[in-house]
Amino acid sequence: MIEVQELVKTFGFNPVLRKLDLKVEAGQFLVLLGPNGSGKSTLLRILAALARPTSGLVKIGGWRLPDEAFAVRRQLGVVSHLPLLYDTLSAAENLRFFAQLYDLPEEGMDDLIQSSLAQVGLARRANDLVRTFSRGMLQRLTIARAILHDPAVVLFDEPYTGLDQEASSILDDLLRDLAQQNRTIVMTTHDIQRGHALASHVAILSRGKIGYLGATSAVPSGEILNLYTETIGAGQ
Amino acid sequence: MKDNQRFVTSYWRVVLLVARKDLRAEIRGRELISSMFLFAFLAVVIFSFALELDREARENSVAGVLWVTIIFSGMLGLARSMAVEKDKGSLDALLIAPVHRSALFYGKALANLLFTLVIALLLMVLLTVLFNISLFVWQVLVVLVLGCIGFTVSGTLVSSMSVYARARETLLPIMLLPVILPVLISAVRASGALLAGLKAEDWLPWMQLLALVDVVFLIITYFLFDYVVEE
Fold this sequence. Notes:
heterodimer; A: alpha/beta; Rossmann fold; 2 domains; six-stranded mixed sheet; four-stranded antiparallel sheet; 8 helices; globular; B: mainly alpha
């Protein structure tokens, strides 16, 4: 589903990704771990067609980026630590705006919006302005927005930032639901244990390269921190 | 043929969708118009006290005062309009959507144009009262629309560039003022000549130049926006 070969991204003279290779099969849930500056967010922005690779091959669903970005964007949903919503619009108005932007059929749009809000537990707040929402509610609405058009691939960039325990646990459940719907998920996080518990595969980025890539079942949860530290250490 | 027609329909649908979203947000929040109008009001009052001129001098300076105030108050709106999208991450949400990015740009520019026109019309009322000169001549209104199109189209593009910078508030006027110089000069000259009651040969070439600059800006921004917003 996602294929990255020898991906290089530089900002000025500063290389952020250095000939990075990565393959994510359809239906996999990959968690990307790595310290600040390792290139996690840059990789996600390239996959989301928000940044242009300096060189290398990036393909999603068989379409190549950036040349076929239009086709790629149709099958992508993106959630970041920012809400990506309009706080002067209500929850339903936000979803309607994005549904229309994605050219979803008008017929049945109200039902789709209601069921999306219900899926993230916000059906009762449909007509409330987004600026009255807590951080956790914003993040749930962001997920509803990201999956409104039923994308095959969902990218999460540090989705737990700023969430309290309860909101994080609700987000865990939502991520499990999405994974069960056979979507391909790529998520960056600094919460190593949580990422390991949720994902089917783990990749550790160090200095712009994948230092480790494997199934989470191959790494016991007690070992993931050691593996992370060793991989980061080896990349220095 | 059908594909082309569908592309055009869907393109304009996105332009109107984005503009409508910005208008709805502004009607609810009243952040842009109120700050732009307050700035414009204070600027015109200061101008009227600072330039205690006789009638002839007022007639000569009113076009300059009008356009300088439109541009400075308009810049407040342009900066805020893009900063809101960037700070909440909603600019990324727009850019991820499978739509032509220039349609997103023209939607933002259309909303900015409407905000700037509202301020410009209120300014004309204020100047008519404070300078005791009627600005409501239909040709001046045409110049006003043409000038605001050139200003908001180039301004929306420059603000999309400066919004990524750390010192975006200072960067926007530094980058934008040289770009809009042709708009400013031709708008001031055309409206000045019209208000002085000069012949068509004195204002028409400036109006034509203004229209030409608008067309050039509209074409350039169509191709540039995608490169401006992609990292």
